[in-house]
Amino acid sequence: MQDNGIDVLLITDPANMYYLSGYDAWTFYVGQILVVIIDEEEPMWIGRDQDANGAHLTTWLDEKNIIPCPEHYYHSEMKHPMGFIARLVHLLSKSNRPIGVEMDMYYFTATTYASLKKELPNATFKDASTLVNWVRLIKSDQEIEYMKRAAQLVENAMTTGLEKINPGVRECDVIAEVYHELISGTIDYGGDYPAVAPLIPSGKETTALHLTWTDRKFNSNDFAILKLAGCYHRYHAPLSRTVSIGETSAQIKDLAKLCVEGLHAALETAKPGVTCEEVEAAWRKAIEPRGVVKDSYLGYSIGANYPPDWGGHTANLRKGDPTVLQPNMTFHMIPRLWYGQLGIEVSETFRVTETGCETFADYERKLFLK
Amino acid sequence: MQDNGIDVLLITDPANMYYLSGYDAWTFYVGQILVVIIDEEEPMWIGRDQDANGAHLTTWLDEKNIIPCPEHYYHSEMKHPMGFIARLVHLLSKSNRPIGVEMDMYYFTATTYASLKKELPNATFKDASTLVNWVRLIKSDQEIEYMKRAAQLVENAMTTGLEKINPGVRECDVIAEVYHELISGTIDYGGDYPAVAPLIPSGKETTALHLTWTDRKFNSNDFAILKLAGCYHRYHAPLSRTVSIGETSAQIKDLAKLCVEGLHAALETAKPGVTCEEVEAAWRKAIEPRGVVKDSYLGYSIGANYPPDWGGHTANLRKGDPTVLQPNMTFHMIPRLWYGQLGIEVSETFRVTETGCETFADYERKLFLK
């Protein structure tokens, strides 16, 4: 905040709210905010009246710093929760100080910003869109432990999903089993909801990566990608694998091998001191001699998150990203190759170690055949 | 659009995009838009390059109206997808016409709006936040059929959840079974992901309505609310029930009865010609003589939606909402009463009929005892 000349920081990203205060509830669909004031000991949580008890139960904040906003500010054409929040900032005599807002965060809508500016005409606003996200880039050992637990969940779910995919089985029945595995977790701990639903593009939909499941039945000559994440205490470990039902062509098998080779080349490159774009370049170098075209977006920082996205919105494994890898940065690397109407994806979530990197999951990297 | 003097409508709400074009994918976490131009036959879908195939597969749009935005516009500090979209609007010679934008929709961030204004300095922008939402208020028979199917899913999931809740069972294991039921669906059709995760506030968390599950075990003197929605082709039918493990106090039992009485009073009031606030008043009238305080937010319009919210953001069953009920409007009515640290909720999703209303689910209304 000091580096950016920000005295008051208004946090609306639920993952940033969680990181700073512990607040964890499905309430991000209504106006809520964490106010961080540079010379105050604690942030303030401001949210809907009926959710204040959730803040008491999940945050480390003192009771006086949990401020319920009356219900009638919500879902109203006349009022906006930001009006209440702005008045509070004013009451705290902070309204003429530089205020940082997360301009490009989901849940900080154009109206939210307009309401804020209207109520605080003397304030100077600064874009602090990914200020806290960048702080979260390097994980603590505790966060790494959460991601390891998430990885255990996704391994189990992937095994269940791959087992379940068979001719005559509906996509929805595969995903039902996957969800069950992700949520019930292990004997030692349960799983949390992933920020993105499990995806299972199949057949010609494997080139349409973000379609969700249907109740279509797999046929005896089918193809699917399972794109899942385990989630533990909001920390994610995504993992993708591709499966062919029945025999597939030599080209597809070669392509799958190439995808795994590219993945390995990129993972071998990832270590402290190397940049994000160098990791992507290693992938591209491994696949380009074989004439395969691929966009340059190989992955992204990953950790705690909420719907609709589990990506960190900071460092990306792609051309032009100069971020230098450091120990305990964590990424989801998603090599993808397309062949006509079929897509192949073999992804890994990894952390940068002192000397290289290690994946969270330990899962065979290949095209699965059934 | 004509009534609002809007020539070009930029739709960013995924449920509105779905309603108008059929587009259905988990891609709302990146810039995507449906452009509706008042004198063009078809809307245009503009989204991320890798998702254009999903638009081909799910929409009824002609191929020429599916426009992929290059990958390098995304997750960039230099560019914004809205820059690409704005240029396209300009190329279409529409940039000096009145443009409607969904100012207060999730996924239309302050930055999105700023980018748009910067690229189209001659355009006039109008707030069209809930323009399409209001069009969606009255459901077609097809939509009602989807909600009936969703209701079948939630009935099954509620039965499974209530059966599974027992001393020594973890919350996550109950939710795992609930998810399985919601997604695997029936023999005839599968279920879709609900826009809000299944919620199961328990113990003192029953007054913190939007906390998600943990791996805490239920004890032999516990209390929980199951707050679920079935979802079919994005159409929701939510249902809440409260359960007490072991014997509970006479006060709680009385409160549960009162909650159901209030629900019945409100349902009996709901019919064409009555206003939303009159429905809420009937609930309040039924409970107020018994001295129970309750905020005035009794429910909201419901239908197709995407995370993070299944509410329609239009008509609300609460004080001050003059919306007149008409046949095939659909609402989720959520009577809630609190007693100290315990909360009771018994909710129903209903449609307005020609002469009254009918609930989608057929599920016993009471405090469940185990």
From TrEMBL, chains A, B:
Domain Creatinase N-terminal: 1-138
Classification via InterPro entries: Creatin/AminoP/Spt16_N (IPR029149), Creatinase/aminopeptidase-like (IPR036005), Creatinase_N (IPR000587), Pept_M24 (IPR000994), Peptidase_M24B (IPR050659)
Peptidase M24 domain location: 145-354
Single Gene Ontology MF annotation: proline dipeptidase activity
Source species, domain of life: Bacteria
Keywords: Dipeptidase, Hydrolase, Protease
Enzyme Commission (EC) number: 3.4.13.9
Enzymatic class: hydrolase
Pfam families xrefs: Creatinase_N, Peptidase_M24
PANTHER family given in the database record: AMINOPEPTIDASE (PTHR46112), XAA-PRO AMINOPEPTIDASE P-RELATED (PTHR46112:SF2)
Protein name: Xaa-Pro dipeptidase
Species, as recorded: Geomicrobium halophilum
